[in-house]
Design a protein that fits this description.
This protein has 140 residues and is α/β, with parallel strands linked by helices. It has a single domain, classed as Sugar-phosphate isomerase, RpiB/LacA/LacB (Ribose 5-phosphate Isomerase B, Chain: A), CATH 3.40.1400. The protein has six helices and five strands. It has a five-stranded parallel β-sheet with strand order 2-1-3-5-4, sandwiched between helices. Strand 1, helix 1 and strand 2 form a beta-alpha-beta unit. The protein is globular, with a radius of gyration of 14 Å. The two termini are 26 Å apart. The protein binds D-ribose.
Amino acid sequence: MKVAIGCDHGGIELKRQIVRQLEHDQVQVLDLGCDASESVDYPLFARAVCATVLNGEADFGILLCGTGIGMSMVANRFKGIRAALCHELFTARMSREHNDANVLCLGARVVGPGLALEMVKTWLSTGFGGGRHLRRIEMF
Ligand code: RB5
């Protein structure tokens, strides 16, 4: 499995921790920045991660900013991207099972690293339920 990950300055520390966990779990990671703590514009990184998912270079994307809101707003502008902004485990799991989310957005100033890492694990290990859920996602 290959995961593209991107963040702005608000999510950089959490990105480092997630990359460390994914690599430890033998997940291939495409880290698309940012790489320094200077203020940057989150749409650039959302766009890069979404493009990578849409062109098939990555199976999933993870986007981090202070709240996760800006990243999710940008990501959901791209047809074919189903980005889920999650703050707890239930919606992280359901966003895969019912919505076939292909991008997970997290707010690094909202959730602590322990919860965020659990959410990433849950999200990546949950399959899409298909059936009526497929019909619904095909409607948008
Ligand atoms: C940056 O200060 C902050 O606005 C950004 O990380 C994010 O929360 C936007 O939605």
